[in-house]
Design brief:
By secondary structure, this protein is α/β, with parallel strands linked by helices. The protein has three domains: 2-81 and 173-180, 3-Layer(aba) Sandwich (D-Maltodextrin-Binding Protein, domain 2), CATH 3.40.190; 85-164, Periplasmic binding protein-like II (D-Maltodextrin-Binding Protein, domain 2, 3-Layer(aba) Sandwich), CATH 3.40.190; 193-272, 2-Layer Sandwich (Alpha-Beta Plaits), CATH 3.30.70. The chain has nine helices and 15 strands. This is Prephenate dehydratase.
């Protein structure tokens, strides 16, 4: 089986994918849309993409593409602890405090702001497509006073020296990844939860529309673990709502709530009903 992931190798997504699919062929893609399209067009059987981080919230590229562009189902969720490392080329390990530019994925840069503020207040920050790309660039330009923020695996892969360990602002930092391409995906990782994720839109100009929609869950005592709005990209001020529903209630009860919303004129898009698999010790 072929499994696509947001690459390159040694990124956090690669870490999640290789742990979830240790015996499958892993194929890197340069962007989230490219990875999702590979699943759509049958280049790979499944795809692994990030969906949310503890510090930075939802990965909007993933959410928007899945809502607007495709109906690929979510078959499983992987939750990976995120530890950010500052790394430099081997010849710069003694002079790493002289770094003038720090490269990484925008989320990794945002997750390490306090460390950067304390040690590199004047350094230029440059966003890259992935943390692994940043590590690769630093490895290929050892003559420059630059550093990358990336996972430990990147330092090993690209022969870099870690000079700042676990520099993320929040100690308990995690990223959720979705496995796309099948209604249900079995993983060799113990699941600890079940979720249903939907996108909800309500009729224009309906007074209290969101309140009415949420009441369909509330009076049935259905637990929602997340709700956020995203622009519909049609008219200013129009949104869809991304909702995570905890799966402890009977499925029929949840189906009844969704049908009530539809009867009110709402539209429901189901992303997936999937098991949640936390990873530890990676």
């Amino acid at each position: 089986m072929k499994v696509g992931f947001l690459g390159p190798e040694a990124s956090f997504t690669h870490n999640a994918a290789r742990t979830a699919f240790p015996n499958e062929e892993l194929i890197p893609y340069h962007s989230i849309p490219a990875c999702i399209k590979a699943v759509e067009f049958g280049e790979v059987d499944l795809g692994v993409v990030p969906i949310e981080n503890t510090i930075e919230g939802s990965v909007n590229t993933t959410v928007d593409y899945l809502f607007h562009q495709t109906s690929i189902p979510v078959g499983a969720e992987i939750v990976l602890p995120i530890y950010q490392q500052l790394m430099v080329a081997q010849n710069n390990k003694e002079t790493w405090l002289a770094t003038t530019k720090i490269l990484s994925h925008p989320q990794a840069l945002a997750q390490s702001q306090e460390f950067i503020r304390q040690h590199f207040p004047m350094a230029e920050l440059e966003a890259t497509p992935s943390t692994a790309y940043a590590a690769s660039f630093v490895a290929n330009h050892p003559e420059q006073k630059i550093a990358a923020i990336a996972p430990k695996l990147s330092a090993k892969t690209y022969n870099l020296e870690i000079v700042g360990k676990d520099i993320q602002d929040v100690a308990i930092n995690q990223t959720r990844f979705w496995v796309l391409g099948a209604d249900k995906v079995d993983l060799p990782i113990i699941a600890n939860d079940q979720k249903l994720t939907i996108a909800l839109t309500m009729p224009d100009n309906m007074p209290g529309a969101l309140h009415k929609a949420l009441s369909a869950f509330s009076w049935r005592e259905i637990d929602l673990s997340k709700i956020e709005s995203r622009p519909l990209k049609t008219t200013l001020g129009e949104y869809f709502f991304l909702i995570d529903i905890n799966g402890q209630k009977p499925q029929q009860l949840i189906e009844n709530a969704l049908e009530e919303i539809r009867l009110m004129g709402g539209a429901v898009k189901i992303f997936g009903n999937y098991a949640v698999h936390p990873i530890s010790g990676v």
